[in-house]
Design goal:
alpha/beta, globular, six-stranded parallel beta sheet
Length: about 240
């Protein structure tokens, strides 16, 4: 099929389960410290602040690029205060922020990526920063060939510089690269720039708050059940 040489993966939600991982870790951490809090509410509010905080950076490039780790750290403290979570120190908030470095993969992610790696160059193309993506990959056992992310291009998705910059660094034409994501907006941007596309539904990503991305909203090149299914469809 086609002339695809590399697969780029959205990571948060597509490859790793951010919501389930953070709620489980924070709940255990809070219990060990005698803290009672609605950690699910904090995690959901934190994620709701995720895209708006990046969009603010995208709208004001003259202010300079701010990494996702920095944005997450800026968001969590006021969100905790709003939710009545008190008694946390600076170190506690730093620890919570680094929770994004310790997420667990979906069950199919590591075996699927391992199969795909036998035939294609595989990399994240995430809005995370280099340290975040490196630590996350180490923790979750994600077998990437390299790390590509927003910090490298000083732009957040869906800015064109991320997708085209990744193809350029790989020495490939856009049509030789496939974007794999659980989010239709990511694929819309990628396809508009000439990349191939694959949709992987993660219908429990947001838990009971999921409002979109239950299914493909366009005729993407591949619509698959999960990453192992994609590996099979691509002959791996």
């Amino acid at each position: 099929m086609l002339d695809v040489k590399a697969l780029l993966f959205d990571t948060f939600g597509t490859v790793v389960d951010w919501r389930g991982s953070l709620i489980a870790e924070f709940t255990a951490w809070g219990e060990a410290r005698g803290l009672t809090a609605d950690w699910a509410a904090l995690v959901d509010a934190w994620r709701s602040a995720y895209r708006p905080s990046m969009d603010e950076v995208r709208r004001h490039p003259e202010r300079g690029f701010v990494t996702l780790d920095e944005l997450q750290r800026q968001s969590v403290e006021p969100l905790a205060a709003r939710l009545g979570i008190t008694g946390l120190t600076k170190d506690d908030f730093d620890y919570l922020t680094l929770g994004w470095h310790r997420l667990k993969p979906w069950r199919d992610s590591v075996p699927g990526l391992t199969r795909l790696k036998t035939k294609f160059v595989i990399s994240p193309l995430s809005n995370g920063n280099v340290a975040l993506m490196t630590n996350l990959s180490k923790h979750a056992g994600l077998p990437w060939d390299l790390i590509l992310c927003a910090e490298i291009f000083q732009r957040y998705k869906p800015d064109p510089e991320t997708y085209l910059g990744a193809a350029k660094l790989l020495g490939l034409k856009p049509e030789q690269v496939m974007m794999v994501a659980a989010h239709n907006y990511d694929l819309i941007a990628a396809r508009s720039l000439g990349l191939k596309t694959a949709f992987v539904p993660r219908v429990t990503e947001y838990g009971p708050h999921q409002k979109e991305d239950f299914e493909a909203t366009s005729d993407w090149d591949f619509v698959v059940a999960d990453i192992e299914d994609l590996a099979g469809r691509l002959g791996c």
